[in-house]
Amino acid sequence: MVEAIGVTKRYGPTTALDAVGLSVAPGSTHALVGRNGAGKSTLVSVLTGLTPADAGTVRFHGRPAPHLADRDAWREVVACVYQRSTTIPGLTVAENLFLGRHPLRAGRLISWRELRRRARELLETWQVDVDVSRPAGELTVEQRQFVEIARALSFGARFIVLDEPTARLDGPAITRLFEQLRQLQRQGVTILFISHHLQEVFEICDTVTVFRDARHISTRPVAGLDESDLVADMTGEVRLPGAARSAAGDAADGGLLGAAPVMEARGLGLDGAYQDVDLTVRPGEIVGLAGIASSGRTEFAETVAGLRAPDRGTLEISGRPARPGDVRAAIRGGVGLVPQDRHHQGFVANLSVAENATMTVPERLGPAGTVRPSARDALARTLIDRLDIKTDGPRQPVDGLSGGNQQKVVMARALAGDPRLLVMVSPTAGVDVRSKETLLSNVARVAAEGTGVLIASDELEDLRGCHRVVVMFGGRIAAEHAAGWHDNEMVAAMEGIGHA
Amino acid sequence: GSSTKGGASSSKPLVGVDYPRADTDFWNSYIKYVPQFAGQQGVTLKTTNSQNDISKLASNVQTLISQQVKGVVIAPQDTAAVKPTLQTLAAKKIPVVSIDTRPDSGKVFMIVRADNKAYGEKACRFLGTKLKGKGRVVDLEGDLTSINGRDRTDAFNACMKQNYPGITVVGEPTNWDQDTASRKLKTDLQGAPVNGVYMQASFALSGTLQALKQRGMLVPPSNPKHVYIVSNDGIPQELKDIKAGQIDATVSQPADQYAKYGLFYIKAAIDGKTFKPGKTDHGSTIIRTPQGNLEDQLPAPLVTLDGGSYGGITSVKPDDTSLWGNHLGG
Amino acid sequence: MPDNATVTLPGMRRLPALARLRDLALIPAIIVVAIVGQAVNPVFLEGGNIINVLQTMSEIAVMVLAETLVLVAGKMDLSLEATFGLAPGIAAWICLPAGGSAHGLGWLGGAWSVPLTLLVGLAIGLLNSLLIVRFGLSAFIVTLGMQITLHGMLTGISGGKTFFNLPSSMLYIGTAEWGGVPVSIWLCLVLFAAGVGVLGWTRAGRSLYAIGGNTDAAKAAGIRTDRVLWVAITTASVLAAVGGLMLTGRLASVAAAQGTGDIFTVFAAAVIGGVSLNGGKGTVFGAFTGILLLYMIQNVLTLAGVPAQWIGAFNGAIILVALILSRITSGKRQE
Amino acid sequence: MPDNATVTLPGMRRLPALARLRDLALIPAIIVVAIVGQAVNPVFLEGGNIINVLQTMSEIAVMVLAETLVLVAGKMDLSLEATFGLAPGIAAWICLPAGGSAHGLGWLGGAWSVPLTLLVGLAIGLLNSLLIVRFGLSAFIVTLGMQITLHGMLTGISGGKTFFNLPSSMLYIGTAEWGGVPVSIWLCLVLFAAGVGVLGWTRAGRSLYAIGGNTDAAKAAGIRTDRVLWVAITTASVLAAVGGLMLTGRLASVAAAQGTGDIFTVFAAAVIGGVSLNGGKGTVFGAFTGILLLYMIQNVLTLAGVPAQWIGAFNGAIILVALILSRITSGKRQE
Ligand SMILES: Nc1ncnc2c1ncn2[C@@H]1O[C@H](COP(=O)(O)OP(=O)(O)OP(=O)(O)O)[C@@H](O)[C@H]1O
Ligand SMILES: Nc1ncnc2c1ncn2[C@@H]1O[C@H](COP(=O)(O)OP(=O)(O)OP(=O)(O)O)[C@@H](O)[C@H]1O
Ligand SMILES: [Mg+2]
Ligand SMILES: [Mg+2]
């Protein structure tokens, strides 16, 4: 079906792809896994004709790939959901869905009514409820992700590439996605599926290819394979996953004894998001805030970090009432934040890793409002090692990093100030297994050192390390589980089954 | 000047005046004079400002027409592009007086201007005489796209070539911008010695003086290093500088006369008077232009400290009461 | 009307039908000005005066249309004002007889002048595209450099003098009338109508919004971004040439300074009309209301006989006020 | 030097030490011009001429510095050129005696003129910030409106006349010399040095890059984006006022048109110097090389005695060439 032979791609000094080969059999669902920066997305943009390869060839059905400029031809052979959002904020959802293929009426004019009708139809099949004439820029991350998926799958291409489609989706959404994928599989559509959730690979893929450090490592049938083999291939070392969990476990014993809460919310409410939420986080305690997209978890977390001002209720950070909606005050009060959408709020793309990582701690960079590059780079290096960020060095611009490594930079920015309260929203979205361990074990470590942690997420791995998980549903706290809960009860709680 | 109260009565006919621009000393004194003389000449005014943009002039005249003016006074800075406007006015039988410039084509009742070529000529004669026909002179030209600027340049160069071949002229276009003027002058001062400067308008005045001062070349005529400076316009500051011996001469543009006779002729036209070539009662001559229009050529006196005569050109002293610069508020 | 119009009208999200209302944002302002104008001077609403306003704005309006194309596609073109002067200038230069007061070259007959004008516009557009799209230079600065160069070339070929006694074919659209209304007004309206249609109801037009909004995304969606940009930038230059032709006709001449400084008005009109400088937002109709508003106010000022030396200050104040008005009516922060 | 310089030099990621090389991108060009200039006219490299170039560029250069601040922060200021004229204009107007040829108001003594100039700059800056930061209006169009308004106000208060016989305190920085070098050159260099320091090595400076690059991320990192923007925009206006003061001093007068049209040069210099119009990129030193290059070339042209009518075309062509040069040396597509 599709065949990449000896594809090489360099970015300046970085080699993103080193003579890799990949061959996807017709009708198969082929997983592509690898650590952050392994070169997956780069291969994707080569396979979909967005970036030219420095060397090597790509063939579809044994025929050479179309000319780069011939976008239509590409669109016929392959459809893709890219890791980075490709919706156009200014245009409506409907138009985003049918960009470049608007339904026409007499005189080759666009029929907007028809366009909206088809858009509604399309989204209904995905049970996404958004007004199709809203600008895409106003959608939530999840909604936007679905728009992208729906668009890609609606081309009717026989070969579909999905680069971390689940990274920005919550549980039920992922289930919906997989239903659709199975349908396509039945129709004999070929799929290239990229994800850092290995269980997803086992769930819907039949073959899996592993990349490591820009090289092709292995391609094997999924059947009869177990997770540790994959991780071994990805990391190049044999080591059992779940280390993160135990790390968090250790923290659990150390924590909880902390006296005064670092964060205390009383009857906190934000119109249209969440209502009378009471929540405390103690030093050394890791509190999970579970819930699906619409549950209000994200908004609550952002309120704690000072990104939003609550409409009612009180919020205290380490005993002192927080200045509502003042991030700077929050940071100075000892709050560290890992925001939800890294591209939007996480980093300044064209600034260096160092500048981004130290942005929250200006006062440490030099006396009297000055910044000593040496001091900054030194501080940055410690963070790079601590989070094991794959980069050319503190001065590489963040836009040169792979998705997962960018996320680590955001994490570094949050940890730079040794916060007393660490607020994280979906912290491991798009982060590979090992990096996920690194991130979570860091969380465990800072907790052990007495920092309170609030993780707003729906990723079970994120939540597993928590001492307790508070589940939100429909803007209210719906349940609370102590550590050691079972996946399905947690999922059920998030779906609001049993109450509401 | 905004429109004076009271509509157009037969006694005080409504006259439209379009000001070419409001951002130069010279045209502002003109703008100041027009309302003053309007009363004197017995006309009511509607005024517009075409901000040195000929297409604005066209549409301004349109608005004047739709306000039923009986006559129009314009000062087209582009003598070619004004043609369609003149045609429109002719079609509406509205008499036109053109101030300061001579339209390349089209019918006007009277042209009131001081010959820009004469400015260049006078400047050339003065410098030529003072420099005894040899030396290096910088000509700070106006803007190549301005007809008046070009007339002054051409006349100056022609006169120099013909009468003082020993003098080299360095022409520097300045877009009427004093910073550009002073920058280019300074650069020229780097090269061979400069003996004279001709500023085609007063805009370059103080920039030039500063440039010379900075290089210690601002010395009295007695000193052989003296640089002779001729300016143009006759604004009060120039007259002061001549008295102070800072500059040596200027050509006084008759801003007041422009206003006075512009309105005088338009009123006459409305009253059905007619004129023919020959001397006038105000020391000027009316001639017939190649285009067949009448042109009242107002005198533009050369002003020098001693009021002497240079190369056959008589001049007046800077305190001469006939100079508009001497009876003007500011 | 393009749905993206909703962007700037959050309050109306649930009412797509009202989407196009955003385009009407300036209509209230325009009505107010009309009333004020009438109060200031009863001449204002007379047919003659309205035609005068429309005709004097028609040439610049065509440039506004051109700029809108480029802005929506996420680029800028500062050289339009220079093309506006140079295109007819070169045509006149080549077609006018050599020697005499005409200072032309006399290479070609007068019949060639109009095609030549468009050709020059085309050439400039292609050059701009080459530098911006092909070589990836900053559009702002490329076209700034082009603007200065082209102005300079016009001064150069004309020696600063004005071209006149132009071939009659060049004068036609600027002078002729159809049904008592100058051709330039008709032409301007037709071009804008076409613009509304293309940008609102054709794939090519919509792809401009896509490119202006997010080029990579547009590429991913199968749009040939480079090609679309070439076409947009080149079309803009040709339109500017047409505008210049209209003015040339009306003034029966090409002044060496034709177009100088107009680009400011063009941008002001576009932005006031709701076109974003960051690309991907704004409509042709909005841009039209923008330039119309500006010219109406100018006309009112003239009729009101504002003191000459304060005209400038007024013009600026107007742009600010119009801007604030459109900010209020759209209720959205601007980039 | 700001690390973001590396951004435009992918090939050098491994060599942070060379990062600053990006700033030197124009140095080769400058050297070439120097050689050509010397060949054209031996006067070129004489001290007198070099001082002449530096002094005549110093005033505009200060505006370039100001614009760089604003551009790095992701905004634009077109009104600087007007502040450049109006600030000293108002000071002169208020301090010059009423009546006589001075046409001032005579409200305050000459000693006040300099503080007044700066005050006006400050006021304009605050007004700009209010409209842009507080009301969220488009910086481009706000400052365009301001530009026209302020130019108009200068024409208005001066009645189009030039202010002469200024208080001596206004003339000082434009005329005095220290060690044979005009004060304005010293001042210009000092300001640029300060600029390099602030944008390169202070929090406030780096925060400008953060804001220009991604305002939301900067906010989320605790940077007081609004406050930083207020400071940047206001400082820029004050700097423009200083520049205006320098020119006023040098020409011992304020012309009604002072500053008009300079903004084009300012932008050209900044962008050629590597400052991005999309914010977050570029350095003060780069901007300096930009303006220096432009003025050196201008000077060479004057010395070479280029035919008057072609000067304009040359200037434009130069900007294009310089642009292409910087494109090649930086090897990165520009926005
Ligand atoms: N535009 C770019 N400029 C410079 N370097 C780049 C660019 N894009 C990718 N790289 C480099 O190429 C390598 C591979 O990046 P890529 O995004 O393909 O990794 P990935 O496998 O997709 O990682 P992730 O799972 O985090 O998305 C990374 O080291 C990255 O630094
Ligand atoms: N490392 C950094 N990167 C980007 N911006 C920064 C950095 N450090 C500080 N800033 C911002 O630069 C500005 C000046 O920094 P500074 O720490 O002096 O704040 P400030 O103005 O003194 O406020 P306060 O008086 O409350 O400390 C502030 O807006 C700050 O948020
Ligand atoms: Mg990736
Ligand atoms: Mg501080």
UniProtKB/TrEMBL annotation, chains C, D:
InterPro entries: ABC_transp_permease. The keyword Cell inner membrane applies. The chain crosses the membrane at residues 21-44, 50-73, 80-99, 105-127, 139-158, 178-201, 228-249, 255-277, 284-304, 310-329. It comes from the Bacteria. It is a multi-pass membrane protein. Keywords: Cell inner membrane, Cell membrane, Membrane, Transmembrane, Transmembrane helix, Transport. One of its GO terms (molecular function) is transmembrane transporter activity. It is found in: Cell membrane. One of its GO terms (cellular component) is plasma membrane. The complex is composed of two ATP-binding proteins (LsrA), two transmembrane proteins (LsrC and LsrD) and a solute-binding protein (LsrB). Part of the ABC transporter complex LsrABCD involved in autoinducer 2 (AI-2) import. Probably responsible for the translocation of the substrate across the membrane. This is Autoinducer 2 import system permease protein LsrC.
